[in-house]
Amino acid sequence: MIDKLLVMGPGHSVTAQADLIREKRDEYKILAFQRTYPHCKTLLDIEPDYWTASDPYGFIEGLQYIENEKIKKQTTILFPSIFEKDEINYKKYCGSTPLLRQPNGWKSLQSLLAEALKYRDVKTVPTTSTKFIRMFSTNKDLQNNIFGTDAYYRFMHNEVVLGSIPFDSESVIGTKYHWGLENKLSSAVLPISYFLKAREVYVMGFDLFGPRFYSADTRHPWNDESQIDDVAKIPLDIISTWRDWKDIHGMNIYSASNEDETLLSKVLETKKI
């Protein structure tokens, strides 16, 4: 059981909170997501307790850092089970990843992970996804009782369910399909937070606009040129679903960033660490 879990994403709002995070470091367990690590350490001097990713490419830079640093630390890598096999198996669960466009990308991931075992604890997280459930699963409870008001079964299932809405397509074409528009906070981070048995979850760096705290990259899947509506409403509505599921999962979920630096303040209570 974790009383207070601080979740750090890649968004720009993290920067303004860095001093406060270091000041109150001992009061929270910290979960870093994807490329947040290693930059939270190299730029902000914050070493997380846990590190995970829902895209295998999100592990590469951090694993390279661990390989080069060669220092044992207490950070636990939470490695989704759906990344343990090959690319063909991965595609049953997930969409695209830059890793598959790199020569020997998958082999590189496995090699880097094996090296990281010398310096970090690695815990396999049993995972499935709403894509796999829609396309391959025969579990009727998973197909029928993990969405909307019937979501109770996702919190009883023995695997972490990645994704909070039914799979419709991997494509992002305007607002025609919604699966690819879900934010990583609701699709992966909050399910992992539940896996960690967190009671209070403080979120920063999932801003839905603006650059990363470590780069000027401002790309988001819900703000391409084909979208003319306030498409950010789609991921925000899905995040609101997790807020509304509180009586089922038992987590209090807060936005811990400055209100003007994140769109999460539209749907989550702001509570600073």
Proportion in helices: 25-40%
Q: Which band does the percent of strand residues land in?
A: 15-25%
- What summary fits the major beta sheet? 7 strands, parallel
Looking at the overall shape, the CATH architecture is Alpha-Beta Complex
| Total count of strands | 9
Q: Count the helices. How many? A: 10
Give a verbal description of the structure.
With 273 residues, the protein is α/β, with parallel strands linked by helices. It has one domain (2-125, 198-266): sialyltransferase cstii, chain A, CATH 3.90.1480. 31% of the residues lie in helices and 15% in strands. It has helices spanning 18-23, 36-42, 57-69, 87-93, 105-116, 130-135, 140-144, 184-195, 233-244, 246-249; strands spanning 2-8, 29-33, 50-52, 76-80, 121-125, 127-129, 160-162, 198-204, 252-255. The chain has a seven-stranded parallel sheet, with helices on both faces. It has a two-stranded parallel ribbon with strand order 6-7. Helix 3 crosses helix 5 (105-116). The longest helix is centred in the first third of the chain and has 13 residues, at 57-69. The chain starts with a strand and ends in an 18-residue tail after the last strand.
